[in-house]
Amino acid sequence: MTDAYRQLLDSTIHHLESLKARGSSFVGVEADTFASLSGPLAAAVPAVPSVKPAVVSLGARPEFTKPRLVAAPAVTPMASPAVSAAASILGVVPESLDEAMAQLREKASGCVRCPNLAAARKSVVFGVGDIRARLMFIGEAPGADEDAQAEPFVGPAGQLLTKIIAAMGLSRQTVYIANLLKCRPDTPGETGGNRKPTLDEMKTCSPYVLAQIELIKPKVIVALGGTAVEGLLGNFTGIMKLRGSWQTFRGIPVMPTHHPDFLLQALSEKRKVWEDMLKVLERLSLPVTEKQRGFFLPKE
Ligand code: URA
Fold this sequence. Notes:
Elements: H1 3-21, H2 31-38, H3 41-44, E1 54-56, E2 68-70, H4 85-90, H5 97-109, H6 115-120, E3 128-129, E4 135-139, H7 144-149, H8 156-167, E5 176-179, H9 199-216, E6 220-224, H10 226-233, H11 239-242, E7 247-249, E8 252-257, H12 260-265, H13 270-283, H14 290-293
Parallel strand pairs: 4-5, 4-6, 6-8
Antiparallel strand pairs: 1-2, 3-5, 7-8
The structure holds uracil.
The site of uracil has 13 residues, from α8.
């Protein structure tokens, strides 16, 4: 048994005993934590990377009030259950959600896990919006405008996304917007243009978006475009088939829809995207007016 594992075990036992002493008979364990505990030990506790125990108790948020003991490998494939991505990056996750997110942003800003992307980037594009949002939009990767302004979805596609969000009665400040990749995919030897992130890049960057999801705990995620769906859900069916049908990521409902960049080329598809957004509003029990219901319907 490694020292790190013994330390983890001791902390767990200590924590459970103190809960018991305070009268608790049961502990809440998240489904993915439970699954990893029931799996082979080697899978739950990696031999090489250091495993730091971390007590996660994030302030007043009811979901975070139960302390959770977490340990995770440094890089976690998104589609498979992990323990805590935030802990894998931060070690001990701060008590307050604001502090945890600030530290995560700080870590991301110095990330050089993909040396080629780190060398080419102007900025790390972490995310924008309300870290307590119930709705999170996830795209694929920053483009040139996002890289220049250090904010996701600010270029032409982003402006369309902002309009869609406004049509929903929401704003960039009341939702959270992030990408799977925090750095712009480099295009060596070319003067411009965008490149689709590779699966390896998405996997390497995944702890950041996973940690964002873990901390924000959105009630609904909108996955923007096929690449986001592939990276987040590991589902390669294709956005043409998947859009509009609810998927799940670690218990969170995910609505796959077209990427706004695609919409810019195919404005005839905007009603379909709008229907996806109506489903999102309904899922969140947000009000939908008759006028909103009729947006982008073909004129008779
Ligand atoms: N496309 C994306 O997927 N993300 C951005 O931030 C901008 C364009």
